[in-house]
Design brief:
About 70% of the residues lie in helices and about 0% in strands. By secondary structure, the protein is mainly alpha-helical. It has one domain (about 5-80).
């Protein structure tokens, strides 16, 4: 699984390379599933599941946050609770 693509669900990896700083691109959790799990405490698949549930407004906020602070964007998504039937 390409975690960088997962983080940038709505954009190409080329676009992601313009947003992530070199230090963030070297962060192990960006490219390694095991490191992602160790860093955030959830699997990349669980993270992807929550991303699929975002409303259009939440997706926009996610994209804006991701552009400024990718780690904060991931943490924001992981802090969400599923609501509804």
């Amino acid at each position: 699984m390409d975690l960088l693509s997962l983080l940038r669900t709505a954009q190409d990896v080329d676009e992601a390379s313009k947003i992530f700083t070199p230090a963030e691109l070297r962060a192990p959790w960006v490219t390694d599933e095991e490191a992602f799990f160790r860093h955030f405490g959830v699997s990349p698949e669980a993270y992807a599941h929550v991303l699929e549930l975002l409303s259009p407004e939440q997706q926009e906020l996610y994209e804006q946050t991701l552009a400024i602070n990718p780690e904060a964007a991931v943490l924001w998504v992981l802090a969400m609770d599923e609501i509804g039937p």
